[in-house]
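Reminder to self: tokens first, then the designed residues, so the page reads top to bottom the way the pipeline ran.
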């Protein structure tokens, strides 16, 4: 089966091979047919769903985009991958909090789910900042392992039989997918073969006779469909700040936080959240979105005047919904009306805490050999390093 709109060389080769193989499928066994039918996958991130819902006038957020007409066999939701990313971030924060001292500066911990920010940290800021980056992999990286390792084994497929496409809100996710180590699975496969932005998906749809339909998404667990769409807490992000804050308050101070109160400080892209008791600030978290706020944060970090324990850092002002791959007008500005519509849709999606997913708990046991096993470290964590700027034009100019 052809994935007609993919421009990757590997994909066109695969398409050709598929056609050749399809000629001979008359004599193939049911197992081979199953293998053939499982080559192309795609998935939708929670923060691209509002774009698709708005763009294609889908009716509710309880459903998701299906790309089946384009030769895609499964559509997954990445919320399960974000669950792992958040849970590992929570645990790492608590560990760092305990280890932190004047001599061993483990805090603030800075999130690492945004490739735009991580590339900037690695290429421009270097060693003073890199040790502060959380080592938990991003949802896209975790999803690569779930698909090419867990799902492949469940389906009796070798990873190279799977072509894994991610639909993302920004172009930075393409660079993240190319990164060796970050995006390589335990079996040595590339976790993500291709990233298309949601804007590119819309373009493909508009330029072809393909259509999008409301349908339940697949799960990694056999024929079961995803019961309902859920998102994590937070303002147009994967929700690391809110979930880590609640977990840390509970684990470190025995405090159960229901509602999180964000205080906008310098501007609406710099928020603060604190946990206070008897007039003392126990935890001070922040969200810093956009490079103006990131640069201010770095300036204060360098001066040793940065009072936060944890910062959710995102390169785009207003977060992932405002990613350049989906919320831009043709002249390169933010489409404010569309963004506002997406924010409304996003906030209407019910929140599900990552701890409450029974599938995630099962996967920790069945796939990762426990919540604290060496395999968890290998599959769900990574390392960062200072990198030289690229000379092939693929790097982003800040
Ligand atoms: S903040 Fe922007 S660059 Fe970072 S992951 Fe989200 S959309 Fe991509």
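Designed residues (398 positions):
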């Amino acid at each position: 089966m052809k994935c007609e709109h993919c421009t990757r060389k590997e994909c066109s080769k695969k398409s050709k091979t598929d056609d050749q193989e399809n000629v001979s499928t008359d004599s193939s066994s049911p197992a081979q047919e199953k293998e053939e039918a499982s080559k192309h996958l795609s998935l939708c991130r929670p923060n691209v769903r509002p774009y698709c819902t708005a763009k294609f006038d889908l009716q509710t957020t309880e459903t998701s985009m299906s790309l089946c007409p384009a030769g895609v066999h499964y559509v997954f939701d990445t919320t399960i991958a974000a669950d792992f990313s958040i849970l590992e971030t929570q645990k790492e924060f608590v560990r760092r909090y305990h280890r932190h001292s004047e001599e061993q500066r483990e805090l603030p911990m800075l999130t690492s789910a945004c490739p735009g920010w991580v590339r900037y940290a690695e290429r421009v800021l270097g060693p003073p900042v890199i040790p502060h980056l959380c080592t938990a992999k991003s949802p896209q990286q975790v999803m690569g392992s779930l698909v090419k390792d867990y799902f492949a084994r469940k389906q009796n497929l070798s990873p190279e039989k799977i072509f894994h496409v991610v639909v993302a809100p920004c172009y930075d996710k393409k660079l993240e997918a190319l990164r060796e180590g970050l995006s390589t699975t335990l079996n040595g496969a590339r976790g993500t073969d291709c990233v298309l932005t949601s804007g590119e998906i819309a373009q493909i749809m508009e330029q072809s006779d393909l259509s999008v339909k409301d349908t339940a998404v697949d799960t990694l667990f056999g024929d079961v469909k995803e019961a309902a769409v859920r998102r994590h807490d937070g303002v147009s992000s994967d929700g690391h700040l809110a979930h880590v804050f609640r977990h840390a308050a509970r684990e470190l101070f025995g405090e159960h936080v229901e509602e999180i109160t964000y205080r906008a400080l310098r501007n609406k892209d710099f928020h603060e959240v604190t946990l206070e008791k008897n007039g003392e600030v126990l935890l001070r978290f922040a969200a810093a979105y956009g490079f103006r706020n990131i640069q201010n944060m770095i300036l204060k970090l360098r001066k040793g005047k940065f009072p936060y324990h944890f910062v959710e850092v995102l390169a785009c002002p207003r977060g992932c919904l405002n990613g350049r791959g989906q919320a831009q007008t043709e002249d390169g500005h933010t489409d404010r009306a569309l963004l506002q519509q997406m924010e409304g849709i996003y906030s209407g999606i019910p929140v599900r805490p990552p701890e409450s997913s029974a599938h995630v708990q099962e996967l920790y046991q069945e796939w990762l050999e426990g919540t604290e096993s060496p395999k968890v470290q290998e599959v769900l964590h990574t390392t960062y390093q200072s990198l030289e700027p690229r000379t092939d034009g693929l790097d982003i100019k800040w």
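The first strand starts at residue 40 and ends at 44.
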